[in-house]
């Protein structure tokens, strides 16, 4: 049983504020795709994201080819490709790098000996499952609330909603 004294930010799997904000901003861009470029200020307001923080996120998303920017009076940001082709994993990798790290190292670069040797397979399995969800869900899925069946099935269990 988990110690109730330990704050949740000490959990093994964390989604950074940067990644959360990036996905939310990208979803907002996907939702307004037909309306043309969206100003950073409008994205920040729509998703309650600190503007200065969002500027850095948008820069990372632009550098990774997720968004493009347009200068001028009608300028702003838009997705660089259709929302159906941008996954949550793409967005998270753009701002945070690889999806799963163990002590700052990719699981496939680790080595364990003795009784802990099978632990490497556990970390790799964790990474595979994280990828299974995040690489399957696109920004279009978020905007249309059309999450893939496997994701909908995962969240149907009451246990999925419990902090354990």
UniProtKB/TrEMBL annotation:
Keywords: DNA-binding. InterPro entries: TR_Rrf2-type_CS, Tscrpt_reg_Rrf2, WH-like_DNA-bd_sf, WH_DNA-bd_sf. It holds the Pfam family Rrf2. It comes from the Bacteria. The keyword DNA-binding applies. NCBIfam families: rrf2_super. This is Rrf2 family transcriptional regulator. The lineage of its organism: Bacteria, Bacillati, Actinomycetota, Actinomycetes, Micrococcales.
